[in-house]
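Quarterly update from the structural biology core.
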Amino acid sequence: MSSTLPTSAHQGAGQGQNGSNTSNQTQTDTAPSDQSPADEKISDFDWDDLLNRYHKVMEERNIEEEKVYAEFASLINLYQYFTLWAHTTSIHEVDRSYKR
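Predicted structure, tokenized:
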């Protein structure tokens, strides 16, 4: 393992020959070769396909949501008719009770 580290890394806590911090140099020297398999999988992933699939699914859900809203609106109309009918019946019954 020591063969992959620069010579300045062997001199205690990242101190170089003149006392300067060389840990940044060590990181930049080894960074390109340290790419993990997960990073490779992420970079190889088809992000455009994911975006297209997301938009397709969201469009399908929006269509379903519009259908639910339309059904709800029709139920509200039915409820309004029911409310009107129930109110009219109530008024009619109250009028009948006064006549008794």
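Helices lie at 23-30, 37-44, 47-99.
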